[in-house]
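Repro case for the chain-ordering regression, as requested:
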Amino acid sequence: MTFELFSNLVGAFFTLAIFSFLYKDNPLYQMSEQLLVGISLGYGLVYSYERVFIPYLWQPIFLKHQWPLIVPAILGMFYLLRFTRKFSWLSRYPIAFSMMSVGASVALAMHSLILVQMRQAMIPIENFNLFLIFIGTITVLLYFFFSKAHTGVYGKFVSVGKWYMMVGFGASFGLTVMARISLLIGRIQFLVNDVFGKLF
Amino acid sequence: MNIFERIQKLDRRWIYIVVALAIILPLAIPFNSDDVTSPPTENLYQFIDAMAGRQDRAVLMSFYHDASTMPELFPMEVAIIRHCFERNIKVFMLTWFPQGAPIIDYAINTVKEEYPNIKSGVDYCNFGYIPAALALPTILGMGDNIATAVKTDAEGRKVENLEIIKGVTNYSEMNLVVEFSGSSAGGTWLFYARPKFGLNIAVGVTAVMAADEYPYLQSGQMIGMLAGLKGAAEYEKLVDVFAAYREPGDPTEAPRMENGNRKALGRSFSSDILREESIKELINITTQTTASFSPTEYQEFIAKYPDKTAIFDNLKLEKDGKIEIDVTKISDAEAEELGHTAHADLKRMTHNIIYKFKVARIGMNAQSVAHIMIIVFIILGNIGYFIQKARQAKQQ
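-- result from build under test --
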C-alpha cells in the first residue's frame, strides 16, 4: 500500500465519520470533529512558529542583532497577559497599536466601498438594466429610511425595495445551495476516485 | 393523508439518501454537457490571456482559504495555473493563511506533472505564507518593488535573484491579482492596492460569496470573477478550447523571440469560436482515445518527429479518408521509443482531457441533477404547506 493510498484511506474514514452525523449524533462524529479542530490549531501554531516567529523575530534579533525589534516583541507579548488578572490591562496596548491598520484603511476603503460605488450608481440610464439598478438603489435606500412611515403611495413605492431584497435573498439562497452541494460533490469525488478508484 | 402531507412529515434521512444518489449517479455515469461561459469568467480569461508570452507581465494568485473550501476553489486555481503554463504567462502565488501554503504546493504540483519544462523561479514563483498581519506593508510595498516587499520565496531563495523577476518590478508589470477565498475575497487588495496603484483585481469565490461580489463587478472595480464550481467549470472549458488547443503542426515548445518574449502557443479567445460546433470535440469530458488527422494534418504532425515516422506509420489506421491512431494500442516499448514529448503530443491530439483538468465540469453534471431535485423538493414542499394551511382554515 502506497503512502498516498494510506492517507486517502484515513481521509475516507474521517469523511464517513463526519457523514455519520446525518443518521444521528455518535462518538465517531464527535471524535472527528474534535480532531479537526485540534489538528487545525496545532498546524497553524507550528507553521506560524516556523514562518513568523523564526524569520520575523528570532533571526533578526539574535542573528542579525536588529535590537529595536525587541520593542514590538515585548508589545506583542503583552497579548499573553490577557490571562492574568493583575496585568490584563496591558493587553489593550498591542490591540490599540494594531488598530493602526483600521485607521490606514478608512480613507482607502471609503474610496473603494462608497465613492466609486456611488459614482457607478450615478451613470446615465442608457438601458433597461441600468434603469432597474437605479430603481433598486433608490427604493432599497428609502426602505431603510425610518423617519417617515411606510404608508400610502410612499409605502407602496418603498415596498418595491422589499421585493428587490427578496430577489437578492433568493439569489443568495440559490448560490448557498450550490456551494453546499459543491462541497458534497468534492467529497464524493474524493471517495469515488481517490479512494475506491485506487483500491479496486 | 395525501402525498403532499406525507412529504411534509418525511424523515429527513430519506432526503439525504435522495440527495446522495442525485450526486453519486451523475458522477458514476459521466456525460458530456456544455457549460455556457459567462462574461465575468470570459473577462478574467481574456485579461490573463493578453499576457501570453510576455516577459514584462505577470499574474499574482492569492490563496486566501483553507481546505474547507477546496472543492470549489481548487479547480479554479488549477485551471488558472494551467492557463498560465500553457501560454507562458509568469505567475506568482502567495497566501495569508498558514493552511493555504500546502494548497499552493498541491495546486502547482497537480499541474506541473503535465508540464515537465516548467521551472520554479523561471515560469512561476511561490512566495508562500505571508502572515495576514503583514498584508498591509506587503501589498503597499509590492506597489513600489516586489522583490523588496517579499524578500524570499517559499523555497528560501532571494526573489531579486530569480529569473522570473526580470522585467517585473511592481504592479505596473504584475498588474493583475486573482484572490481565491471563501469569505472576503479581494477586500484587502480593493482597499489598498486598487485606489493607490490602480491594480486590476479579480476573484475566485465560493458560490455563497458570489452575490456579495457582483456590485464590484458592476462598478468595474473587479475585472472578473469565478463564482463557485460553475465558474471553475467555465474556466476549465476556456482553457481547453483556447490555451490548450494545438494544431497538429504546432511546435511543442514555445520559441523565444528577439525581444525576449516567447511565442504563445494555443489560440486567442474568440466568442465566434465558442459558438462553433467543432469545439464540442474539445470539451468532451468522457474518455477520448483516438487521434484523428486529415492526410495533410498527419504529414504536418509527423514532420515534427522525422526519426519517429516509422513508429507512427505502424500505429496508424486509415478510415473514411482520415488517419487515426488509438493511443491505448501503443505498447510500453513503443511509448518509450516515441519519448515523452512525442507521446504527450500525440495524446493531446486525441483531445482527451485528464481527470484533474475536468473535475469541475464532472462536478457540474452532478450539480445540475441535484438542482433539479432540490427545485422539485421546494415545489412539493410548498404545495404540501399550502394544502395543509387550507385544510386547517377549513377546520376552523
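Ordering looks correct now. Chain B touches chain A through 52 residues (CB under 8 Å).
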